[in-house]
Backbone:
């Protein structure tokens, strides 16, 4: 046997395993061995044991035999064709419509697949520069929010109203309305209390209150109605007619007072129509106060830019051609604005096709190990409050050592940047990085994270200007531009202040939720309690809605007309994919109604009306409009976007003085991050996102205090043990979770969790907004101490390990000798291009005889996949895309803790090296479609078999659930349906299922099929056109389609020009565990790091 | 000592042994025949809400199948036509017929007519009409002589083994593209004629015989 030539590398997943030769790691409460503790137990709702279950099973099958249901042919099925079929629509055929999605300043153009009128799957629009055909996981998961059964469906109000639309005298109509009011009160009380007495009381009370109340006439869609109103303590369901009447009343009152003592809280949006309407409102109601909810905590970047370039100044990064990138607390590959586009651009220079292909170099400094830190070539764990110090050191280095020309007017600012005291390591890091940057002027850029204070953004601008990469809208790596007109709104602090002092009597929250998102220090719930007329509109009956006097449910973006503008200026029209499921208005429609009380305006008219201003003649207008809808981007009308005329460097000097003070002795910095799955809570009730393991911690259904090994040892806590965080007078108890690579004396928590807006969000995680203050929204120094008790945290990473070190006998998966993950650096790649293959255990390929006979692979196409580990950043978008495409069920925290999650594609995360600042790598693992698949040979019923095109097929209906295949699969990618996860889904969730993929039932195994439904569709298209082979690019698997880094290629291995063939020809190609002779069809391209020689 | 059982009981075990195979054989036969789709499905003829006669429309009037089932060449489903298709003619022809009351009602109100599915495949079998049509498989091959059916019934078992019979040897069923909807067409006796038909497509169809061909 040949010895591996490369120096042995050891990857690990948790600390206890890291130094090696220890007992298997412990994580959460369960033992992390190959199987979690309860993996072999069966718990049935209601507490039945396995034995009882067998009993029930026997009895029910006996019963089934008795009844004659088994003898009837098949269930009777009806076919309901349209009365008049819409044009171009054929049953069961996918249609794609262009629209767009906006989240936290990231705008992505989308193509949404719709089958039989139901939106099924979200894909990127290749024509849109914000997505370039890709999307992130958020956009993928947003479709589930549409079908969320917990969405708010009816208006609710603290005023109970009943209307009567019948005829007769006003008195008669009033009596009928009161009667209805009383009946509804009776039914409501009965439903809530289940007591007839209580219900009767409620009825009597309603009758009494109703008699006292005066009746009034309101306008409805179909004429007039008589309405009776009585107050209520809690919000109760209300009819749309009454709700609109109430809304118009509020809006009318605001209008008649010209906006005095009223406020509007808007979401941060780039929609031109929305902005136009807001401008109209502020013009018409000069005294109205308009606030905008922060898209990202702090919003300091935006504020800094406005100081720098005027009220309309904005900026965005562009990484095309960027050779040296420094991410200063910026997770630009996962949560920062424009992350999808930035990932695509960054990945262009990470291809490493040959040893001589130029590669970019990524430096990162951050407090919490993020996916960007994992992708970085050099990463420094630095507390967030010290990031400005690193930036000042970089400024000084560029100015003093490298004598970079100082931009005009910035002399004073540069002089204000003092050389900081930083550690020796950090100093070396900065010096080497500066040298690297100066060597590639105008191809180097620093990205400063949204969490950083204004001072850091100031220095970011300065450094980019020093490097010559601060450009205008046409070029440069950080591009300044004039934003579309938008109000310069004050922040939430001022809103809370004014509301508390009683200066705001009416507040309309349009799709915003201040009661949850505002930092606890603002005491927003108290402030909101002071507002006499609080109107809330939104997707959920959320925290603010529960306080509001009137709540109006809003449409999901897939139900509404709209428009968006992405950061670099491209605009697109958003068209609805489906009529509102619950008759809800969109945010635009609500805003228009606020402007013109009593007048319902359709979203289509509003959007088209706005764009009519930009368009010319009517004939041209319709043609262009249709083209925009069809292509998903606005073309033909160019927006003149110029860089701000003046660059006011001296105005920024003040920001430098406001930098965070250095921490005192034992203070610990608490960092708040945007959650990689739930964002700021938008996805809290999204089961896909809750169950998708968090990018780095791999926690599901929870958030935790992430802390480094050193701090954990100091505090004496283990995973899952409670910690108490104390910031000022606010404190919170949360469980601890070890996070390697966390900066010294810092902890990190993610926002967006701990909500109660539906069944999914309930009990999932802790609400850290209760800890935040508005002065320090992103990080603050405080105390962390040991709490009492434990909390069960569930992670997916630490089981499924098969005795990795061979301690219990055979070193079967001995990592060091047969690395699962393979990598080298640029120098190593140049020296030995074949490095990846050398890591194989067996080099003499003749000895590698497959255990089983190779199946007959005589299909026209031979499918295969290649995954580039150099470009994969571990963002999880593929996992969500796979879930959406393949109807993968969600199983819940408890079942995940038993190791029963169903993801067909998992994102493995390994650490390497030092415990305190390890390197981190990701590896997406799905079915390898082995040519000699170990699973196929153990199936007693041939439920899994090979197709002549090289697919490892799974016939669910044949599967009897022995799970032999899952046991025999060396990659552990087969998933078993322990329960009938799909049986009791609410009807509205059933609508979200892809009709092209079978819904699996209990007791069968499932796994990645290479998206066989897409392959089949492409083959049918080819066959119908009478062509021979499926063209390359015709089949995109869901994971490949979504990947912003383009790390996955898939196609026909017999097609010499296919991208996958070119990728597989790379010397970096290796097969996972290919020494087993499985001949996997999915292969990986080993990673190549590009470290700075001066730092290694 | 007198015998407890009479002497004839000695033959009982033998008789049981002899009957067991017989019973098994009968049971197998029963399941084989009466439980198979050939018996349970062929001839299935549910009552439809509208007494639509294919015999009249497709047979005597000679309407092409694709006049109504117009998505058959481009979609998985041949699709029951929308009510509007019926009304294309029936606004003029037989416009007061009581048999068409349900159709007129549907057209007026926009409510669909609730047809009963006749050819029902399990949900996990993904059949597609368009590729079969493209390959040259005629309507009659699976649906039988629809033009002779007053009420549509199942003509073939549509079971997996029946599908596979053709997928393994599709040649006798392949027609020239122009004859797809021709109900009277029969496979030519002449081998060279069969060759000619096969050559009408540039690429020979490759009917899948593996699981994921139809199940996914």
Residues:
């Amino acid at each position: 046997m040949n010895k591996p030539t490369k120096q042995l590398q050891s990857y690990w997943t948790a600390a206890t395993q890291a130094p090696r030769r220890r007992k298997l790691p412990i994580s959460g409460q369960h033992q992390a061995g190959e199987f979690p503790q309860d993996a072999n137990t069966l718990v049935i709702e209601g507490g039945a044991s396995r034995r009882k279950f067998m009993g029930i099973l026997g009895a029910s099958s006996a019963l089934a035999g008795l009844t004659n249901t088994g003898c009837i042919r098949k269930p009777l099925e009806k076919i309901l064709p349209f009365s008049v079929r819409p044009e171009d629509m054929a049953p069961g055929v996918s249609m794609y419509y262009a629209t767009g999605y906006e989240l936290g300043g990231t705008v992505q153009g989308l193509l949404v697949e719709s089958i039989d009128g139901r939106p099924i799957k979200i894909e990127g629009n290749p024509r849109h520069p914000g997505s370039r055909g890709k999307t992130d996981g958020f956009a993928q998961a947003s479709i589930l929010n549409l079908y969320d059964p917990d969405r708010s469906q009816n208006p609710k109000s603290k005023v109970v109203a009943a209307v009567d639309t019948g005829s007769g005298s006003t008195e008669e109509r009033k009596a009928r309305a009161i009667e209805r009011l009383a009946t509804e009160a009776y039914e409501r009380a009965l439903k809530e209390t289940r007591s007839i007495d209580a219900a009767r009381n409620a009825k009597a009370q309603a009758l009494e209150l109703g008699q006292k109340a005066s009746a009034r006439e309101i306008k409805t869609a179909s004429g007039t109605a008589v309405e009776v109103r009585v107050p209520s303590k809690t919000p109760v369901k209300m009819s749309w007619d009454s709700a609109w009447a109430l809304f118009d009343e509020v809006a009318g009152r605001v209008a008649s007072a010209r906006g005095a003592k009223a406020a509007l809280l808007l979401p941060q949006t780039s929609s031109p129509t929305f902005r136009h309407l807001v401008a109209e409102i502020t013009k018409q109601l000069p005294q109205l106060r308009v606030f905008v909810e922060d898209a990202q905590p702090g919003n300091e970047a935006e504020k800094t830019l406005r100081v720098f370039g005027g009220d309309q100044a904005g900026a965005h990064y562009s990484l095309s051609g960027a050779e040296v990138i420094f991410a200063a607390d910026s997770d630009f590959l996962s949560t920062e604005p424009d992350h999808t586009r930035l990932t695509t651009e960054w990945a262009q220079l990470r291809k490493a096709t040959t040893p001589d292909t130029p590669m970019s170099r990524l430096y990162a400094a951050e407090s919490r190990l993020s996916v960007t830190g994992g992708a970085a070539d050099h990463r420094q764990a630095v507390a967030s409050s010290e990031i400005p110090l690193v930036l000042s050191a970089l400024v000084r280095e560029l100015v003093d050592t490298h004598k970079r020309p100082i931009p005009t007017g910035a002399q004073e600012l540069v002089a204000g940047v003092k050389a900081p005291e930083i550690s020796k390591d950090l100093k070396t890091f900065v010096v080497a990085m500066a040298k690297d940057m100066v060597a590639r002027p105008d191809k180097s850029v620093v990205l400063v994270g949204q969490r950083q204070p204004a001072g850091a953004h100031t220095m970011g601008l300065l450094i980019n200007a020093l490097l010559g990469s601060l450009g205008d809208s046409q070029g440069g790596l950080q591009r300044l531009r004039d934003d579309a007109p938008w109000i310069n709104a004050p922040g939430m602090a001022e809103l809370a202040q004014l509301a508390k002092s009683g200066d705001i009597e009416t507040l309309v929250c349009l799709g915003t939720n201040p009661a949850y998102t505002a930092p606890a220090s603002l005491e927003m719930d108290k402030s909101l309690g002071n507002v006499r007329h609080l109107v809330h509109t939104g997707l959920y009956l959320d925290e603010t809605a529960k306080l509001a006097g009137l709540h109006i449910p809003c449409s999901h973006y897939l139900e509404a007309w709209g428009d968006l503008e992405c950061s670099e200026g491209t605009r697109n029209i958003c068209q609805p994919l489906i009529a509102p499921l619950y008759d809800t208005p969109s945010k635009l429609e609500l805003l228009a109604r606020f402007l013109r009380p009593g007048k319902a305006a359709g979203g289509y008219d509003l959007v088209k009306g706005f764009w009519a201003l930009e368009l010319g003649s009517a004939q041209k207008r319709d043609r262009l409009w249709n083209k925009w809808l069809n292509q998903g981007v606005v073309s033909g009308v160019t927006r003149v976007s110029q860089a701000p005329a003046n660059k006011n460097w001296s105005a920024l000097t003040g920001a430098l003085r406001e930098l965070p003070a250095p921490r005192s002795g034992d203070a610990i910095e608490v960092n708040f991050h945007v959650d990689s799955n739930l964002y700021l809570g938008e996805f809290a009730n999204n089961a896909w996102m809750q169950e998708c393991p968090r990018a780095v911690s791999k926690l599901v259904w929870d958030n935790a205090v992430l802390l480094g090994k050193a701090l954990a040892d100091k505090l004496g806590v283990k995973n899952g043990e409670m910690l108490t965080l104390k910031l000022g007078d606010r404190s919170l108890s949360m469980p601890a979770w070890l996070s390697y690579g966390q900066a010294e004396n810092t902890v990190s928590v993610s926002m967006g969790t701990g909500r109660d807006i539906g069944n999914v969000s309930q009990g999932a995680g802790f609400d850290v907004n209760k800890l935040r203050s508005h002065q320090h929204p992103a990080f603050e120094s405080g105390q962390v101490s040991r709490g009492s008790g434990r909390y069960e945290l569930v992670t997916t990473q630490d089981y499924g390990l098969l005795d990795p070190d061979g301690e219990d006998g055979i070193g079967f998966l001995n990592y060091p000798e047969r690395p699962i993950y393979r990598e080298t650096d640029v120098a190593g790649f140049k020296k030995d291009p074949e490095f990846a293959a050398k890591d194989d255990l067996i080099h003499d390929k003749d000895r590698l005889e497959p255990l089983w006979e190779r199946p007959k692979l005589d299909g026209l196409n031979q499918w295969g996949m290649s995954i580039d580990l150099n470009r994969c950043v571990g963002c999880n978008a593929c996992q969500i895309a796979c879930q959406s495409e393949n109807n993968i069920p969600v199983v819940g925290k408890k079942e995940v803790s038993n190791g029963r999650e169903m993801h067909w594609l998992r994102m493995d995360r390994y650490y390497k090296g030092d415990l305190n600042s390890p390197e981190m790598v990701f590896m997406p693992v799905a079915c390898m479609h082995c040519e000699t698949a170990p699973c196929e040979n153990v199936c007693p019923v041939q439920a899994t078999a090979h197709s002549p095109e090289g697919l490892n097929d799974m016939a669910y209906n044949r599967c009897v659930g022995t799970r032999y295949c899952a046991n025999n699969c060396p990659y552990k990618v087969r998933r078993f349906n322990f329960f009938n996860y799909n049986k009791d889904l609410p009807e509205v969730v059933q609508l979200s299922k892809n009709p092209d993929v079978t819904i699996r039932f209990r007791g069968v195994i499932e796994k990645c099929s290479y998206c066989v439904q897409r392959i089949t569709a492409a083959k049918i298209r080819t066959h119908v056109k009478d062509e021979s082979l499926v063209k390359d690019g015709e089949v995109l698997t869901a994971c490949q389609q979504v990947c912003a880094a383009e790390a996955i290629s898939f196609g026909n291995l017999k097609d010499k020009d296919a991208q996958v063939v070119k990728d597989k020809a790379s010397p970096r190609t290796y097969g996972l565990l290919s020494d087993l002779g499985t001949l996997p069809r999915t292969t990986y391209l080993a990673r190549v790091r590009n470290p700075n020689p001066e730092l290694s | 000592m007198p015998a407890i059982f009479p002497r004839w009981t000695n033959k009982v075990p033998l008789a049981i042994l002899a009957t067991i195979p017989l019973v098994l054989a009968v049971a197998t036969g029963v399941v084989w025949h009466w439980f198979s789709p050939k018996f349970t499905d062929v001839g299935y003829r549910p009552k439809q809400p509208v007494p639509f006669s294919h015999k009249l429309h497709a047979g005597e009037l000679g309407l092409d199948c694709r006049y109504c089932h117009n998505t058959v060449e481009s979609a998985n489903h041949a699709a029951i036509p929308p009510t509007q298709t019926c009304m294309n003619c029936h606004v003029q022809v037989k416009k007061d017929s009581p048999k068409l009351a349900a159709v007129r009602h549907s057209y007026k109100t926009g409510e669909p007519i609730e047809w009963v599915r006749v050819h029902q495949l399990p949900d996990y079998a993904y059949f597609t009409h368009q590729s079969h049509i493209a390959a040259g498989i005629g309507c009659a091959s699976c649906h039988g002589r629809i033009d002779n059916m007053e009420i549509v019934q199942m003509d073939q078992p549509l079971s997996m083994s029946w599908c596979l019979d053709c997928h393994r040897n599709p040649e006798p069923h392949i027609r020239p593209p122009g004859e797809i909807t021709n109900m009277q067409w029969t496979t030519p006796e002449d081998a060279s004629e069969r060759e000619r038909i096969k050559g009408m497509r540039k690429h020979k169809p490759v009917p899948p015989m593996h699981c994921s061909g139809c199940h996914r």
The two ends of chain A are 32 Å apart (CA to CA). The interface with chain B takes residues 73-74, 76-85, 90-93, 859-860, 945-949, 951, 953-958, 996-999, 1009, 1012-1013, 1016, 1020, 1023-1024, 1026-1028 of chain A (CB under 8 Å). Residues 170-193 of chain A form the longest helix (24 residues).
